[in-house]
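Aim 2 progress update. The chain analyzed this quarter is reproduced below.
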Amino acid sequence: MRSSSRCIASLKLLGRPCAQQHHQQQQRRCMSMRRWMPSSSSSEQGEKAALFGIIGLNLCVYLAWQNTLSTGDYRTERWMWRNFTVSRDKVKVGYLYHTLLTSTFSHKDTYHLFSNMFTLSMLGQAAVTTLGAPRFVAFYLGSGVFSSLCYVYQDKLIPRSWPSYYRSSNSVPALGASGSVAAVVALAVLRSPRSVFYLFPLPVPIPAPVFGLMYLAYESRGLYLGGTDIGNSAHLGGALCGILTHLLLLTKRRR
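Predicted structure tokens:
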């Protein structure tokens, strides 16, 4: 009886350090898993990196344009026109498919760059928070490519009875991030219908639904009449991407 009690006591004594070691191992595993799991601060950093990385790329291409135009280097300017603008002939005849994307990061005019990047910086934060950094980048790039396709195939999308069919030409090289930015604007309007927007330089608050309808009406009128250097088909294509993304998010939420 004494021997058995001694054995039980020794087992209890041996069991305590084993349990403590097991608990310490679990804590170490949890700590190692936490190191690999993205924290809220790291996700916020990723969102900022995605948003301002896109803005930075637009700025770099803009500086390349300005340097080329200021130096008068004909070869470099020709290379920029070839690779950072999009048109029907470039895609259908020249097979320069990469211009569907590169043109969406291209700005020659300072005001064009400022208006697009200012809007993106104001509304892009909500979009990247909603979608997350990887999905936001895919959303932005996909919207840009789709808006470029809408411009390239503009003559196939609009009826011949519209004045723009004869007054506008998609063979003219186009550039700018307006299509992608239009997608961000449309998503922001639908995700935050109670917010207000401002049209620079008017200090008048406009409810989000009213602003969205005004934007669609303006772009639709431009697409119908034509005769301007504004790519209304690309803008509407980008807005359509924002609308479809919002509907997709609603569908996932219902599930």
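The chain has one domain: 43-254. The longest strand covers residues 196-197. These observations will guide the mutagenesis experiments scheduled for the next reporting period.
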